[in-house]
Design brief:
Layout (H helix, E strand, L loop, with lengths): L9 E5 L9 E5 L3 H11 L3 H15 E5 L9 E5 L2 E5 L2 H4 L4 H17 L2
Antiparallel strand pairs: 1-2, 2-3, 4-5
Helix pairs in contact: 1-2, 2-4
Length: 115
């Protein structure tokens, strides 16, 4: 028997090297359609892979704590024909590249494990 994906599920995640008073990100599940579209988009070239990493974070980060003075917020945006609440690009681009890479990798890992 299969069950539906809980699109409200989140996983608390602190970066591997952020050990003292870490920032904790709430990482959410990607809807299957969005995950498939992003996966297909990332297959085209390196630029598309980079864009996909940023987009994955915009869609999947559902909150954070202890991220300095950066307050979590979302905006509505249409992505692949669906209106979603996403983190604005200007907040995501404040993350260092190694953080973007680690978080997007973790999000894809979470999405493979969700049943």
């Amino acid at each position: 028997m299969i069950s539906g994906i809980d699109l409200n599920a989140t996983v608390d995640y602190a970066l591997k090297n952020d050990t003292e008073n870490p920032t904790v990100f709430k990482l959410g599940v990607l809807p299957a359609y969005i995950l498939a579209q992003l996966g297909a988009q990332a297959q085209t070239d390196f630029k598309a892979q980079v864009e996909t990493m940023f987009r994955v974070l915009q869609i999947s980060i559902k909150g954070w704590s202890n991220f300095g003075d950066i307050e979590y917020r979302t905006v509505k945006e249409k992505i692949f024909g669906r209106e979603l609440d996403i983190v604005p690009f200007e907040l995501i681009e404040r993350l260092p590249l190694e953080v973007i890479t680690e978080l997007s990798t973790k999000i894809f890992e979470i999405n493979k494990l969700i049943k």
